[in-house]
Amino acid sequence: MQFRTLGPFTVSAVGLGGMPLSMSNDKVTPDEAAAIETVHAALDAGITLIDTADCYAPSWDQMGHNEALIGKAVASWGGDRSSIVLATKGGITRSEGEVWGRDGSPEHLRSQVEKSLRNLGVDVLDLYQFHRPDRTRLYGEVMETFAALRQEGKIRAVGISNASIEEIEIAQEVLGDEGLASVQNEFSPRHPCSSDELRYCTENGIAFFPWSPLGGTGGGATAVGQRFAVFAQIGKTHGVSPQQVVLAWELSLGDNVIVIPGSRRPASITDSARAADLELSADELAACSAAVGHGIGE
């Protein structure tokens, strides 16, 4: 397993995205025992970073479901838990009737931090991320709340998600030098549109998490080798899955890239973890970038 820098932490280059254990595009999720088995398989494979969010839940009235599940799984794992980094997110709301919204107010974020602490069973949140911009509020003012939460010892590091370069710059200005640990944006062969933000983060020493790095639940991840044949062809050459090739290619785009594939089965996350050790040639990497387009990797 390779390791990479995430703010004050050193974490595995491949993490686990927890969302599919509680919600997915195809409405299929494992039962609690199977979900915990998947988390344990990730940890056994050397993964030390797990990403979750307060809104990852089967329904609006089960907010915090995924956090509580991750907390229970980590607490019941038999290995050394001291190196595990738990990252969560806040700022998205869900209400009766599955009405989704955004709330970047200090009151909401502080309330959610306390809930996340309880759900995860920890005294301080390792990485707390602003999930999506609240367009009713100035981004800088929201970041001031995050800065205060860090100063108060509620969180160790600050991240942002679904952010533009302008929002990344605002976060940097408010949080100070090296104050922004990570940016989590959608990025995959199917959705390479955050390539500019990826480059910016690489140039500025900010960890970049591609969310849905394989193309998302509901078939995107499963079919990535069919939609982009180059990943299947290279995988066949190396005797590995197309998914491993995708993750290895993404990791090659910068030493700051940390992939967080979601998984509902132990076999899937165990396979993904091996991507950290898959070595692709310069020609293979160039072929992957060319297939995806957008000048990625140049």
TrEMBL record:
MF terms in GO: oxidoreductase activity
Keywords from the UniProt entry: Oxidoreductase
Gene Ontology CC: cytoplasm
Top-level taxon in the UniProt lineage: Bacteria
Coiled coil: none
Domain named NADP-dependent oxidoreductase: residues: 14-290
UniProt name for this protein: Putative aldo/keto reductase
Species lineage: Bacteria, Bacillati, Actinomycetota, Actinomycetes, Micrococcales
